[in-house]
Each structure stands twice: as structure tokens, then as C-alpha cells.
Amino acid sequence: MTFDIDSIKLQESLNEFSSYLKQVESSREKLIKENREIIALSSKAIILLHSGKTVEANELINNAFSLLSELKKYVISDLERYLWPAEQEYVEAAILKEIVERKDHFSGHNDLQVSLNAYVTGLLDCIGETKRMIYDNLRKDDFESSLSLFTIMQSLYDSIYPFSFYDNIISGVRKKLDVGKRIIDDVRISITEEYRRKNFLDRIDSASLK
Q: How is the chain split into domains, by residue range?
């Protein structure tokens, strides 16, 4: 006894799946390639911000945002994760710019139009860049600005720390928090030493005037 099964619908389904997989693969390659450009733009913007070139940095940040917006058209299936590295770097640059410009509030993930995962990890990366700004200010004897930046750094860490329990969901967040804590501890020591130095010099100056 033989069975004659019509496989037309089966083949149609397999052909449809094959086309879908090719589309996913094409989108994945596009996301990976363009990711690098967004990361490069954001990294250059961060360097410019540290150099005081806010206008030029803002232009690069806007370019990165435009590229991100364009790339989102290629996000299908579960490919959103391929955007996270670029979004993370973009968040870091955008938030650092707000710190440099002394904004009275930070943009949220909806304002920046990024995923929550990338938003959280991008904020944590700002801690390291803020450290660099603090040391630059200490070298300029701008103790008050350094102290203000340290408060921002500590606030970022404290706000995000509760998410350390979700490391299995937000990949890498606990590691970034550990790095952030070490940075904050190092900066606290530097600021404390600078405060003691300034206090000591002020006492010497006061004594010499008597």
C-alpha cells in the first residue's frame, strides 16, 4: 500500500521560510556593518566633548542619531540586540554632552529613542567619561566643578545599582557596575586628597598673612 501526499503547501512553507531567513541574514549584516559607523561617530563626539568642542560634537551625535533611526528599519525578528552596542555608545555621547552643557535634567530613553538595555549600560559608561572630566578640572584647580561632577557620577551609579540583580537579562550590567564602583572609589580618593591639599595650602597662606 502506498501513500501519495501532496507536498505543495509544505514546499510553499519551506520556500517562505527560506526567503525570510535570507531577509534576516541580510538585515543582520546591514546592522553589523552600520553599527561600526555609529560607534565611530559617537566615540569621536566624546573626544570632541572632552576638548570643549561642543558644537562639532553635537553634529556628530545628530549624525549618529540619524543613522540609528535609519537602521531601525532593518530590525526584524530578534535582531534588535545588534543595535544595542551602537545605541549604548550613542547614549554615552548624548548624556555626556548634557553633563558638559550642565543641563538641569537627563534625557530619557524615549527622548533618545533607544532601547532600555542600551540606555542603562550607556549611562554606566558615562561614569568613566565623567571621571576624565573630573581629573581635567582638578588639574585646572576647579575643585567645585570636580565635586559637582562627582555628585553626578555617584547619582548615576546609585540610580542604576538596583538593576544589578537583573544581570541575566541586562547583559553586562553587573560588570559595568563593578567597574563604575572602582572608578568612583578612585575619584573619591583623588578629590579627598585634593581637598586636604587645598586646605593645607590655605592654612599656610593664612599663617603667612599674620
A: 16-103, 115-210
